[in-house]
Amino acid sequence: MSKRNYLLAGVAVIVLVLGVWWFAGSGTAPEPSLQPAEAGKAAPGILPVDRKQAAQLGIRLVPAIAAIEAPIAVIPAVIQPPANARVAVAATFPGVVMRTLVVEGDTVRQGQPLAIISSRDVLTMGADLTRANARAGVARSNAARLSQLAREGIIAGARADEANALAAEAGADVAEKARILKMVNGVGASGTYTLTAPIAGRVTTASVQTGNPVDGTTAPYVIDAANRYEVVGQLPERLVGTARPGMTVLIEPDIAGRVTAVGSTIDPATRSVVLKAEIPAGPGIIAGRATSMSLSGPAPAGAVSVPSGAIAMIGDKTIVFVATGGGYAIRDVTLGGSGGGSVEGQTVLLSGVRPGEQVVISGTSALKALALSR
Predict the structure, then answer these.
(1) CATH of the domain at 348
(2) pTM to 2 decimals?
(3) How far apart are CA 260 and CA 247, in angstroms?
């Protein structure tokens, strides 16, 4: 190789060495990774928890959803049957109670026997029905005989027509007495009749006992229709303009209904109006029970709904834990409504969480303990 070639090769080596040195010392090289002590640090308000730790703590997440309704207020109320859903079972004929078949609080089906009453009137009606049947039999036989004679020309046809009319009258008398006995479930031979439930429902009043007298002016039983109740509350004057029919109400435990009417006259003593809502039957729903009713209306913009298990307290602050890239953020939240924001197991949040964010619903106690230990 010539001296010139050696010289060029040497220059190339020097340039290569200088280039490596330049790039190694410049700011374009990758920065060193964080030391373990530095990697454990997290932004303020965020608990650094990796996936393995989250599984050990039993953390479960659900997305926050945009709220449709938010609680407005909790008002005192009383449960009662609707006006057209309470039926009194009256004693049709005077008599004496021979046997009671249901007691107060029992659930009955339509047509179910309630009590057996012994009545002299029923016994008399049974005897009248027997006599009416006998007279009707004689009248029918006489009408048949006279009709045959009229057809043979032995007697005038008018006599046969009169006999047929008498037979029809006797038959109508029989039918009327039989209908009355059937209507009261009466047995003429024994002189008893049976009170039955006209509707399906619950016996709310049973004011008779075996041996007690009854008459046509008393109602031994009162039955409230099944699965139909009304809750009547006192809506404060300040909320009169916010409540309207169709809004949702909630009765513990988680019995939901709809507002049917809002009064228009303010009671001067209580400064409130009457609010009525329909609710279905459920555990603890008993006519006459005093309760509280949570009234809900349209949720404000930005409000979200999360499971009630996501709510936690740290000191005097209401918070939820929200999943982030580096762990779980502690968010201060504002509950919706004066009723605490709870509707059917969900809690409405007015601020602090956006729709779609993942909130912790299981493992909140462990995260709370971790937050308090920081």
Answers:
(1) 2.40.420.20
(2) 0.48
(3) 8
One domain, residues 127 and 213: yes
Query: What is the predicted pLDDT for the residue at 337?
Result: 54
Under a CB-based contact definition with an 8 Å cutoff, are residues 231 and 277 in contact? yes
Over residues 57-105, the pLDDT tens digits come to 889 999 999 888 777 888 899 988 777 778 889 888 889 999 999 998 8
Nearest to 228 by CA among 258, 205, 253, 198: 258
- Residue where a domain stops, chosen among 205, 225, 245: 225
Note whether residue 96 is domain-resident: yes
What average pLDDT does the chain have? Answer: 81
Instruction: Please tell me the total count of domains within the chain.
Output: 3
In whole angstroms, what is the distance from residue 336 CA to residue 356 CA? 18
Return the pLDDT at 277: 92
For residue 299, give both structure tokens: 């949720």
Those residues whose C-beta lies under 8 Å from the C-beta of residue 76, and which sit 6 or more positions away, are 233, 234, 290, 291, 292, 293
Q: Rounded CA gap, 297 and 342, in Å?
A: 13
Pick from 325, 326, 349: nearest CA to 336: 349
CATH number for the domain spanning 175: value is 2.40.50.100
Which CATH number does the domain housing residue 254 bear? 2.40.30.170
pLDDT digits (tens, 9 = 90+) for 283-341: 778 778 888 888 888 888 888 989 888 999 988 889 999 998 878 999 999 887 544 44
* 261 close to 249: Cβ distance less than 8 angstroms: no
Would you say residue 106 lies in a domain?
yes
The residues pairing with 11 across neighbouring beta strands, listed in sequence order, are none
What does the block give as tokens for 341? 């924001």
In a domain, residue 34? The reply is: no
At 47, list the tokens. 């608990």
Residue type at position 32: P
The CA distance from 142 to 157, in Å, is 14
Give the range of the structural domain holding residue 151, as residue numbers without chain letter.
87-225
- Enumerate the H helices of the chain as residue ranges: 3-25, 36-39, 51-56, 120-152, 157-183, 364-372
Domain presence at residue 305 = yes
